Amino acid sequence: MKEIEEVILTVVRIPRQFVSRKDISETELAMESGYPALRERIMVKDIQRILQQFPEFVPEWIEYSEDQRCTPAWYISKTGSSEWTVGFFDRDGTKKHLSLYTDRMPACAAFIKNFMEGIFSRLD
């Protein structure tokens, strides 16, 4: 399990790395993370457990989502006083695959999993 936790910790740092390194794409960061080798074993609950240990990464992922300017793309958004939506913007801007959450932590974990899977589904 330690290997999975290390990979997830690298994954949750992607927005921070993307901003600080400036010379690398999100796809390259995802490849460097070790996620491809373990992607079928990494579950949303595993990501959520790491985010609970390091909650400072949650706002970074929310900001990263809000800063995206391309489609198709996964997103996370606060939709009510305590409600969060994770969804997918299709190429034409249509929202799909909407999931509602009452807490940002599980919403963020789901967003990260979908984000990572989205990167590798484009490469498959």
Task: Produce a short descriptive summary.
The chain is α+β, with helices and mostly antiparallel strands and 124 residues long. The chain is built from 7 helices and 3 strands. The protein has helices spanning 2-12, 14-21, 26-32, 35-38, 44-53, 57-67, 104-123, and strands spanning 73-78, 84-89, 95-101.
Q: Describe the strand arrangement of the main beta sheet, using strand numbers.
A: 1-2-3
Radius of gyration: 14 Å
Which residues sit in consecutive blocks of at least 5 with pLDDT less than 50?
none
The amount of beta strand, in percent, is 15-25%
Helix content: 55-70%
Order of helices and strands: HHHHHHEEEH
Counted up, domains total: 1
Number of strands: 3
Q: Structural class, from secondary structure content?
A: alpha+beta
Structural account:
With 124 residues, this protein is of the alpha+beta class. The protein is 57% helix and 15% strand. Strands 1-2-3 form a three-stranded antiparallel beta sheet. It starts with a helix and ends with a helix. The relative contact order is 0.16. The mean pLDDT is 93.
List the helices and strands and how they pair.
Layout (H helix, E strand, L loop, with lengths): L1 H11 L1 H8 L4 H7 L2 H4 L5 H10 L3 H11 L5 E6 L5 E6 L5 E7 L2 H20 L1
Antiparallel strand pairs: 1-2, 2-3
